[in-house]
Structure formats: structure tokens, C-alpha cells
């Protein structure tokens, strides 16, 4: 009958052909989708939502994957955290308005004599552009930073500020922690993870800021420029050698018992906003896995290549600790159930790092 109706036969052949093509296309599309899906979940870092944000940059994602897997396998007992403070733990801006560093808390404080505030601001205007200029080598920056900090400390030492003024100074400032810091600090303390806050800022004000926000915990160790006071609480100078952003490898902490006591904790998360912060872990004996997270706040296009060379993960203009908290969700199961909604880790994800 089909032989007598060639048009019908021809139409059936076309229909069958189109059906076959559609079937093959559907199978191929499903295979490609499954392949992509399978590829997407083969790496732990692809399951961490915060690492997929557009402001997250990685020069070598495979290296990051390897380090993260080692951190997961080591869990809480192998981990320690080392962090800068100003513009790393604290915000650099909020709603497009600048936020204070520990030094600028002093610069703008009504508890400091006017002439001292002016001198401090003039120093900042002169030297801060040098600090963040990506065209100037660290070697050339160092003597300028020594000049800046030496002069700034002299200004502070003659400012008439009292130890009892610190609380009011912080309360009246616009210093702010990055969002998510409260969660980060609580998580680290709850799980017994040591946190070294290594700051070129004013150590006394670092502690006061954390106290102000209710985030000062016993697991924290501090390195910074701490003031010296007389018996009446008047500032008379500073203790020890000047710490600036480019000599953090020379601090006395590297020759102390702190890192030796933590030598079994050879997995490290390091956070900073300056290339000088990369040196903060230099005193760790035989570090096995160091994940370096850099917050890039200034001159992004010019500075990004150097930051990517130094840091494993670079966060461009990120004012949160969301990524660090996301990583911690994968690194360990909480040792307590005080706030079980905060941290979660899937055993199947851990197994992929075996």
C-alpha cells in the first residue's frame, strides 16, 4: 500500500529520521549535562558557595583544592589561624564611607590634642599612598614605613591620651568588623582553634575594638604596637620595636614559644590585606598546609597580579568573612553542639578528599 502512496511513505521516513535525530540529541544533551554535573562535584572547592562569587580570584584552583582537602583531613586538631587586623578583620568601608583603622581612631579622636591629630593626619596623607602603591617595591617601601611609624608613635606618645580614654575613643569612632566576624571568632573559640592577631596597628586599640564588639576570646594571641603607660595611665611611649606592615617576619613572636607550642597544628589559614602579611607565618615550624587568603582593597587592577602570586585566594573589595566561614564548614565538625545550626559538613564531601 505504501508503494502505491509514495508521499505517505516519504513522510513517514522523514518523521522517523527527525525522531531519531531528536532522540540522539536528547541522549547527547543528557550525557553532556551529566558529565558537567559530575565534573562540577569532583572538587571540594566547587561545593563551597562562597568560592563561586565573582569577586573571588584564584591563580591556581587545583592548588587551592589540594590545600583545602588537607585542611579537611586534618580537622580542628591540626588547625591554627593567623590574621592581620586593620582592614582584614575590620572593614575598609561601609555604605561607601571609610571605616577607621586603629591609628585613624586616634587621628579623629576628640581625646587627642588638635595639633597631634593634624600631625597624624598629615603623616597618613604622606605615607599611606606609598604603602598601597603597587609600582613601588617592598624594599623601597620599608624605610618609608619606618619613618612613618616612628614619627606616628612620637605623636601618639606626646598626645596626652590616657589608657582610660580608649573605650570612649572606640565608641565614638566608625571602626567596624567585617560581617561574619562574630561567627568566625565564636566558631574558632568554641572549637579550640588558636587565633593569632598579628597587627601593625595599635595593639591596645585592637583589644579595645574586640571588647567593644563582644568578640574578645581566650583563644586569641596578640602581636602589635603596644603603648607604655605611667602609673597614672598616661601614655609615655611604646613597648619594643616598631612593627609595620612589611617587617612582620622579624617580630619577636617568631622567636617565642607560641609557635613551638602549636607545632602540632601545622595546618594554617592566613588572612591579610597587604603583601607584607604573607610573612606572618614565617615562624611556624614546618608548616604543612598554609591557605593564604588576601583581601584586596585598593588599586585592584594594578595590584591583583602580585596578590595572586602571593595569596592562594584573593577577595576583591569583600567586606565580609563569609568565605572563611564557608571554608570552616568544610574543615571540621563542631566539637560542641552549642550552636549546631552554624556549622555543617557532609561526610561524603570529606571522603572525596581521601
TrEMBL record:
Main location group: cytoplasm
Keywords: Cytoplasm, Hydrolase, Magnesium, Membrane, Metal-binding, Nucleotide metabolism, Nucleotide-binding, Transmembrane, Transmembrane helix
Catalytic activities: a ribonucleoside 5'-phosphate + H2O = a ribonucleoside + phosphate
The keyword Signal appears for this protein: no
Chain ranges passing through the membrane: 12-33
Protein's UniProt keywords contain Nucleus: no
Enzyme class, first EC level, given as a word: hydrolase
Pfam families on file: UMPH-1 (PF05822)
EC number: 3.1.3.5
InterPro entries per the UniProt record, alphabetical: HAD-like_sf (IPR036412), HAD_sf (IPR023214), Pyrimidine_nucleotidase_eu (IPR006434)
Compartment list: Cytoplasm
Family, per entry: Belongs to the pyrimidine 5'-nucleotidase family.
Name this protein carries in UniProt: 5'-nucleotidase
Source species of the chain: Limulus polyphemus
Lineage, top ranks: Eukaryota, Metazoa, Ecdysozoa, Arthropoda, Chelicerata
Gene that specifies this protein: LOC106468623
Amino acid at each position: 500500500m505504501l508503494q502505491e502512496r509514495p508521499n505517505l511513505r516519504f513522510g513517514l521516513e522523514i518523521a522517523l529520521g527527525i525522531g531519531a535525530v531528536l532522540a540522539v540529541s536528547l541522549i547527547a544533551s543528557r550525557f553532556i549535562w551529566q558529565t558537567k554535573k559530575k565534573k562540577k562535584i569532583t572538587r571540594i572547592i566547587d561545593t563551597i558557595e562562597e568560592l563561586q562569587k565573582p569577586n573571588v580570584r584564584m591563580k591556581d584552583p587545583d592548588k587551592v583544592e589540594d590545600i583545602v582537602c588537607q585542611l579537611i583531613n586534618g580537622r580542628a586538631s591540626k588547625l591554627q589561624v593567623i590574621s592581620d587586623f586593620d582592614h582584614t578583620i575590620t572593614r575598609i568601608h561601609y555604605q561607601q564611607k571609610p571605616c577607621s583603622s586603629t591609628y585613624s581612631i586616634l587621628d579623629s579622636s576628640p581625646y587627642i590634642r588638635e595639633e597631634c591629630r593634624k600631625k597624624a593626619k598629615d603623616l597618613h596623607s604622606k605615607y599611606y599612598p606609598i604603602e598601597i602603591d603597587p609600582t613601588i617595591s617592598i624594599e623601597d617601601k620599608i624605610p618609608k614605613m619606618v619613618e612613618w611609624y616612628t614619627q606616628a608613635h612620637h605623636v601618639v606618645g606626646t598626645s596626652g591620651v590616657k589608657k582610660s580614654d580608649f573605650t570612649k575613643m572606640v565608641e565614638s569612632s566608625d571602626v567596624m568588623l567585617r560581617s561574619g566576624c562574630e561567627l568566625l571568632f565564636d566558631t574558632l573559640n568554641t572549637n579550640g582553634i588558636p587565633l593569632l592577631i598579628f597587627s601593625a596597628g595599635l595593639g591596645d586599640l585592637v583589644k579595645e575594638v574586640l571588647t567593644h564588639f563582644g568578640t574578645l576570646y581566650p583563644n586569641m594571641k596578640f602581636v602589635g604596637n603596644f603603648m607604655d603607660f605611667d602609673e597614672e595611665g598616661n601614655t609615655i611611649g611604646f613597648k619594643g620595636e616598631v612593627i609595620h606592615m612589611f617587617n612582620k617576619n622579624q617580630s619577636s613572636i617568631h622567636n617565642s614559644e607560641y609557635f613551638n607550642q602549636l607545632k602540632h597544628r601545622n595546618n594554617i589559614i592566613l588572612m591579610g590585606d597587604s603583601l607584607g602579611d604573607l610573612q606572618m607565618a614565617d615562624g611556624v615550624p614546618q608548616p604543612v598546609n598554609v591557605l593564604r587568603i588576601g583581601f584586596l582593597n585598593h588599586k585592584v587592577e594594578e595590584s591583583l597580579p602580585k596578590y595572586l602570586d602571593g595569596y592562594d585566594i584573593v577577595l576583591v573589595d569583600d567586606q565580609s568573612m563569609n568565605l572563611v566561614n564557608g571554608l570552616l564548614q568544610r574543615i571540621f565538625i563542631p566539637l560542641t553542639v552549642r550552636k549546631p545550626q552554624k556549622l555543617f559538613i557532609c561526610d561524603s564531601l570529606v571522603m572525596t578528599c581521601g
